[in-house]
Specification:
There is one protein chain. The chain has one domain. The protein is elongated, with a radius of gyration of 21 Å. The protein is built from three helices and no strands. The longest helix has 17 residues, at 2-18. It has helices at residues 2-18, 34-48, 54-66. The protein has 73 residues and is mainly α.
């Protein structure tokens, strides 16, 4: 099965390159992971411990306006 998928991906990438397009691969954080949650907590605590930065305040206010925290931990 893995060999079939590898071949399909190879053919797809070859077709993209033939069309003068470059394949792009994105990666995303594993947000349910414990390490990701701990990193988020560390960054939030760091920001919270450095009040007074006007740009940070503006950013946090904007996030608060548009965020939908329903269901967040």
């Amino acid at each position: 099965m893995k060999a079939e998928i590898t071949e399909i991906v190879r053919k797809h990438r070859t077709a993209l390159r033939a069309s003068r397009l470059n394949p792009v691969q994105d990666s995303f954080h594993d947000s349910p992971s414990a390490s990701f949650r701990l990193q988020c907590e560390r960054e939030c605590l760091f920001v919270a411990s450095h009040p007074g930065d006007p740009l940070e305040s503006d950013t946090l206010n904007r996030i608060g306006e548009i965020a939908d925290p329903d269901g967040w931990v």
